[in-house]
Amino acid sequence: MTEPAPARRIFAGPRSPADPPASAGQALALRALRKTYVSRGRPPVEAVRGIDIELRSGELLGLLGPSGCGKSTTLRMIAGLESVTGGDILVGGDSVVSLPARERNIGVAFENYALYPPLTVAENLGFGLAARRLHGAGERARRVADMAERIGITDLLAARPAGLSSGQKQRVALARALIREPDVLLLDEPLSHLDAAQRDTTRRELKRIQRDLGHTTILVTHDQEEALSLSDRIAVMRDGVIQQVGTAYEIYDAPANVFVADFVGEPAINLLPGVVAAGGWVRLAGAVRFPCPAGAPVGRRVVLGIRPEDLRLTREGEPGAGTGDTGPGGAEDGAVRATVSAHEPLLESGIATLTLDGVTEPLVVETGPEIRLDRGDTVRVTADPQHTHVFDAETGDALT
Amino acid sequence: MTEVRKGRTAKRAASRAVKRRALAIAADGALILYFLFALFPVVWMVILSLKPANELFSTYFSFTPTLDSYRTVLGAGEDEGVPFVRFFVNSLVVSLGAVGLSLVIGLPAAYAAARWRFRGSENLMFTLLSFRFAPELTVIIPLFVLYQQLGLFDTYVGMIWVLQLVTLPLIVWIMRSYFADLSPELEQAALLDGYTRKQAFFRVALPLVKPGIAAVSLLAFIFAWNNFVFPLILTSSEAQTVTVGALSFLGGDRPKYNLTAAAALVSVIPPLLLALTIQRYLVRGLSFGAVKS
Predict the structure, then answer these.
(1) What is the membrane topology listed in the Swiss-Prot or TrEMBL record (chain B) (predicted)?
(2) Which CATH architecture has domain B84-252+267-289?
(3) Which of A30, A166, B64, B274 is packed most tightly, with the most Cβ within 10 A?
């Protein structure tokens, strides 16, 4: 199956509720989870400031945020590798917060794979099983072979980690995390060390394996593409606080604040300061105005967010560009006149950087592949009111 | 025109080559000189140890080589009243004992210092290091009194204990950087698999630092073996080691330099043998661990 070329980025899309996973995982809940690092002589660092997340059994949640936002600390607290300052962690309804890591039954695929160099792949997988002494050597070998089969690493079993590619190491690390049949699976930046080609195949593999085995999974990543394509839901995190939890579409179409809007989406959303004007407009400067979504209070200072692909660009004088010019830069049909300052034609689309009269921020617009623009060209830009976002200029929170 | 230029370039190249060659020869010459300078005492020792007693003070190089000195030193020849074999065994016991004890204490300490910062951890490490740069002579007199009082004077236990000042800091400091270089995620993965912290240390971390253990053990052994001040002051006969023992031949009515030389050469053997057996770990071991951090 090839991924469809989606109109909106690369979402695999949320799984429909009618298609529940064959569940092996337990529900996971984080309740007001906090972590504060205290070191003498320095102010305490609040890495995680009371987060609440609920995962259904078998769900894959992407924990997305910039580095230093506390997502790795959260993952390590769930795994039991980091002590908890406050709050609770429930696996299958039971608190595990007071249990040591070895009694939590949580599998982690570490970012740097954490494969034991002197052992072969098979021994690495068996090493994890041997700890609990639940199985005899024969049973262990059977389970290793079985897991290798499922992950597709049977031909690697005799190899040592040093001889594997990053993609292969990632799959072995995943097999190692899964072989103990954990209640919850944690993936730490699983694709970050892979090159572009491996990233695509490994991402698809990860998705397939997680769906087949049905593990409740948290995927920690700073890479939005990874989060958007793999997750059922995404939690966007910043400075130890969850900013928004939702499906990829919810996050993308209705960002809860400026941070989420800015962090998710490539190329990044245009964020332009303005004032809500009567008649459903946000005025940026002079006559430059864009349609405002319904519900924003008139007169409020806001930040207007428009994604580059939600803007339509036409050449001056072309049909559909609007004829009833009412002033410099403004038009009755909502078209705004702009000057091209740069245009990067890409394969399937292009990215134009425009200048608006009296506005310091540049406006980035995604263009169709057929458009050729030169620096200094005058164009018209229209925005769909359905796809513009307004945020409070003070708090950054979404107003509609 | 071009011919001339070509000729000039060739000439210049040739003179450069000559200059380079001359430099290389000069460097080689300097190295050989240094080599002779550094090796001469060893050669002199070998010659001394092979000389018969009556030709000991001759300054020319022709003499009839004899192994008599070695026989005497090893107790097979005439009795000089110096139990050198015993000293040799003492040296082995206290050096191996000191290294062994330091490994038992030092490896977990190094691991803890690499993995956790606890209150006073840096001070503790610094104190440990200060044992190395503080001259032994600053502590030797109080130690002598203490050892007399505690009955540790001239005992194996006493020697092994005091040699911890030499071996323990070395092992802790070098092994700490080895452990710090290991990815903590390896042990964390083991913890998640159901291993205890202790098992993670023994089954995951320790096997990966074997080259470091080999290198640092050798180094510690050599330092312990070569230590002179501690056995000089803190032993008399029972636990005396070769470094002090070899000098016993110089006492008495006339100094027997040939015997001292033979004794010294014999006592070089164990560190040398050890170094040869584990030399494949040495370069990797020492450059990997000690230099960093």
Answers:
(1) Multi-pass membrane protein
(2) Orthogonal Bundle (1.10)
(3) A30
Task: Out of A289-293, B5-9, B245-249, pick the least confident.
Answer: B5-9
Task: Among A110, A111, A131, select the one facing B193 at the smallest CB separation.
Answer: A131
Q: Do A108 and B196 touch (CB under 8 A)?
A: no
Q: Please, what is the average pLDDT of chain A?
A: 86
Domain ranges, ordered by start, for chain B: 2-73, 84-252+267-289
Supply the pLDDT for residue B283: 66
Q: Which residue of chain B has the CA closest to A110? A: B185
Task: Compute the CA torsion angle A8, A227, A365, A346 (nearest 10 deg).
Answer: -90
A400 and B CB contact within 8 Å = no
Residue A1, pLDDT > 80, answer: no
pLDDT tens per residue across span A87-139: 999 999 999 999 999 999 999 999 889 999 889 999 999 988 888 777 788 89
* Tens-place pLDDT, residues A38-85: 887 889 999 999 999 999 999 999 999 999 999 999 999 999 999 999
Amino acid A222: pLDDT: 92
Q: Taking an 8 Å Cβ-Cβ cutoff, which residues of chain B contact chain A?
A: 119, 183, 185-186, 188-196, 199, 204, 207-208
Mutate to test the interface with B, among A102, A127, A143, A184 (most CBs of B within 10 A): A102
- String of DSSP letters for chain B: -HHHHHHHHHHHHHHHHHHHHHHHHHHHHHHHHHHHHHHHHHHHHHHHHHS-GGGTT--SS-----SHHHHHHTTSSS--S--HHHHHHHHHHHHHHHHHHHHHHHHHHHHHHHH---TTHHHHHHHHHHHHHS-THHHHHHHHHHHHHHT-TT-HHHHHHHHHHHHHHHHHHHHHHHHHHS-HHHHHHHHHHT--HHHHIIIIIHHHTHHHHHHHHHHHHHHHHH--HHHHHH-SSTT--HHHHGGGGG-SSS--HHHHHHHHHHHHHHHHHHHHHTHHHHHHHHHHHTS--
pLDDT of residue B53: 81
Q: Which residues of B are less than 8 Å from A190 in CB distance?
A: none
Q: Which of residues 165-184 of A touch B (CB under 8 A)?
A: 176, 180
> Which chain B residue is nearest to residue A105, measuring alpha carbons?
B192
Report how many Cβ contacts below 8 Å link chain A to chain B: 57
* B192: chain A residues, CB-CB within 8 Å: 79-81, 101-102, 104, 106-108
- Residue A284, pLDDT above cutoff 80: yes
Backbone angles phi, psi at A160, to 5 degrees: -100, 155
The domain A28-263 having CATH identifier 3.40.50.300: the answer here is: yes
Report percent pLDDT > 90 for chain B: 55
The CATH superfamily of A274-392 is: Nucleic acid-binding proteins (2.40.50.140)
* CA angle in degrees (0–180, nearest 5) for A328-A332-A333: 120
Residue B103 pLDDT > 70, yes or no? Answer: yes
